[in-house]
Amino acid sequence: MNLFRSKTGAAAELQPDAELDTELKQALVDFRQSVHAWSKAEYRGDAELNRPRSMRVATHSRWRPALAWALGCMVIAGGVSGGIYDHHRIVVERQQAAARIAHERQLAAQQKAQEDESLLANVDSDVSRSVPAAMEPLAQLMDDNGTN
Amino acid sequence: MEAVNLRDMRASTKVMAAGTLVEPIAAQTAEQLSAQEFARVVDTHRQQIFRFLLASTRDIDLAETLTQECFLKAHRNWSHFRGDSTAMTWLMRIAINLQKDHWRNRRMQFWRHTRTNAVDVDEASDWLPSGERSAEQKLLAREQVGRVWKAVEGLSERQRTVFLLRFVEEQELSEIASATGLSEGTVKAHLSRALGKVRAEMGGKR
């Protein structure tokens, strides 16, 4: 039978790519003959079909589902433990950040207190220096009273 | 291709069944005739159905099982077969649907049933008719058949069915359309794409 009859339209699907088409045509004929030969060899008649047949069963058919379940469980366990670890990491990071902020605030407060103290000291010294010269004897007198 | 149109056969049976009015024939005889018809259909077409299923699945046991299921289903529905198409087309339609159902169930049962007995492409291409060829020609033919198998493996389910019906079973486009339930245009399109892939596989490895 000609596989590339124009009547059926099969020929229209094959472009006139001469060299390849010849090869393709031959390959398809070989393929058909191969399938026919294989089928003929494997085909069993009524008598053979009625008797019990040995079934080829792959040896991994039992453990493969178990392996699949084990892998599935591992993935789930990994996901859950990963989630827990991630959550724990976030909590620790938050605590550390809060402690760092508190420490920074404390340092800032201490620094501010120091600055205030030094400012007051400067003010005191400035005020003490600004006593007018006319008041010096009076100040001297107050010092004398205080010490005596 | 050998195909039996049962329209005539069934008509003759009716005539014979109608003959009960003239010659009293037991109802059992009509059933026996029907059973004989079916047995003849089985004898005529079983090998071809098996071949198509074998080429589709590359699994000998599965092809045998599906062939038996096909004829069991055909036997159950034998009384509904009106002879609109040939028996071969009708049986092929059943076989295609069974094959489709099998792959669909297989996809659903992935976790439960992962084994396969499908023959390897290289093993399938070992089968070559022993013609008058030199050893070199046989080797070349084997290689080319292997490439076609590889291309067929990569086809979609529908493309593969159409390709096998056309180039292995040598069916006409109208027969393929009838068996697959597709229009002839769609069959042509699938065939064209399938051939394109086979050509690419052949061309890419030259």
Overall number of domains of chain B: 2
What is the molecular shape of chain A?
rod-shaped
Compressed to H and E, one letter per element, the order of chain B equals HHHHHHHHH
Report the CATH architecture of the largest domain in chain B.
Orthogonal Bundle
According to DSSP, the number of beta strands of chain B is: 0
CATH class of the largest domain in chain B: Mainly Alpha
CATH homologous superfamily descriptor of the largest domain in chain B: RNA polymerase sigma factor, region 2, helix turn helix motif
Largest interface (CB within 8 Å) is between: A-B, 40 and 42 residues
Radius of gyration of chain A over all CA atoms, rounded: 50 Å
Note the run of SSEs of chain A as H and E.
HHHHH
Could you list the spans of chain A in which at least 5 consecutive residues all have pLDDT below 50? 1-19, 54-58
What does this structure look like?
The complex is a heterodimer of chains A (148) and B (206). With 148 residues, chain A is mainly alpha-helical. In chain A, 76% of the residues lie in helices and 0% in strands. Chain A has helices at residues 10-13, 18-42, 46-50, 63-129, 136-147. The model of chain A is unreliable at 1-19 and 54-58 (pLDDT under 50). Chain B is mainly α and 206 residues long. Chain B folds into 2 domains: 1-118, RNA polymerase sigma factor, region 2, helix turn helix motif (Rna Polymerase Sigma Factor, Chain: A), CATH 1.10.1740.10; 120-206, Orthogonal Bundle (Arc Repressor Mutant, subunit A). Chain B is built from 9 helices and no strands. Mean pLDDT of chain B is 78; it is low at 1-25. The interface between A and B is large, with 40 and 42 residues.
